[in-house]
Amino acid sequence: MASAPKIGFVSLGCPKALVDSERILTRLRAEGYDVVGSYEDANLVVVNTCGFIDDAVHESLDAIGEAIARNGKVIVTGCLGARPETITDRHPSVLKVTGAHAYEEVVSAVHAELPPLHDPFVDLVPPQGIRLTPRHYAYLKISEGCNHRCTFCIIPSMRGDLASRPIGEVMLEAERLVKAGVKELLVISQDTSAYGSDLRYATGFWGGKPVKARFTDLARSLGSLGAWVRLHYVYPYPHVDEVIPLMADGKVLPYLDVPFQHGSPRVLKLMKRPAHAENTLERIRRWREICPDITIRSTFIVGFPGETERDFEILLEWLAEARLDRVGCFKYSPVEGAAANALPDPVPDEVKQERLDRFMELAARISAEKLAAKVGRRMRVLVDAVDDGEALARSAADAPEIDGTVRIPKPGKLRPGDWAVVEITAASDYDLVAKLARGR
Ligand code: SF4
Description:
Elements: E1 6-11, H1 15-30, E2 34-36, E3 44-49, H2 54-70, E4 74-78, H3 84-90, E5 96-97, H4 103-113, E6 137-141, E7 143-144, H5 155-159, E8 163-164, H6 167-179, E9 184-188, E10 203-206, E11 209-212, H7 215-223, E12 228-231, H8 244-248, E13 255-257, H9 265-271, H10 280-290, E14 295-302, H11 309-322, E15 326-331, H12 349-372, E16 378-387, E17 390-394, E18 406-408, E19 419-427, E20 432-436
Parallel strand pairs: 1-2, 1-3, 3-4, 4-5, 6-9, 9-12, 13-14, 14-15, 18-20
Antiparallel strand pairs: 7-8, 10-11, 16-17, 16-19, 17-18, 19-20
The chain binds iron/sulfur cluster.
């Protein structure tokens, strides 16, 4: 029997790109391709790129260069594919460039270079597809694109306007994942709170029952599957208040990832952020009133063009009052094609750095205080890895990759994917240490 054609795959970028990679790989595996772990073993390499900021563009171009040098046959897809000349100018020998979520095009390009081996008797793909995350958690992409036009972002020009997946399709995928052993679903999109608005909240069917393509209905349905459900990229619109009671009732995780980006209304307006006119401090206060245990995560940009020292102080005052649990911060960096490049008054690099340091100092202090308050508490955690005799786990407050961890130095028989009940024994700025709780 001829051996299966072999594909190498490099997946760069955000969780949304990761989901695209999983879809492409699922399809290729279904057609009999082998996915191999080295350039040398592959007959062909697919590189899924990111083009969000300049650093990501460089990383993508370097990855393409490495694949060409070590394998020679390279197909490029992903966000950077929206600017094919950026790729072909530097790497003229790539076989094909396609844009983001162009699954069919990528697969056709693979077929053209490396035809599949037809074997109709072997079902190579498990029904939940191929996932690149560990077995116990999975990203669930509910929509593509975005209707906003934030001035620092080029995603809408690369990925188009919001296109939500039908609710029945999303729920079916979620159900399959949970049946296959996934214990945590991470809901992602560019704007999760806008889910279904492009479909006019069309009713779909799941399990024979009607369900609307609406953010709250989706959260409620996902919450009924028995897995942890974590909501990412939610904007502080009034209707978001409706999911907080689901968190208080334990239906979805009391965790909300809200990319606030700034606290100064003037800067938010310059950024053209969604919901920039909302009183975000008031929203946060309401959420905590309904669900005191809620963890709020966010990202911020400092040094946006036109940001004055006073704007930055407003941001610090905002953070000091909001006391967010998890915070990431970036220095503004111009992205080719973004409207913000035309804004006056760029902030010098050293000022950006100084503001980033001041911001992170405050964020770390708040985080340390909040984590110290957890010492002595019992909580349920999900184990991600067991290495060198200790387990790394996460609580409801920790999303994989971006938040902190709960380290369990004496993990007993715990294995990745296990639940455990632990008692917190120590805390640092961002992480916790725990021991297994008695009588779990
Ligand atoms: S909400 Fe703004 S930052 Fe997010 S994808 Fe849409 S335009 Fe970009």
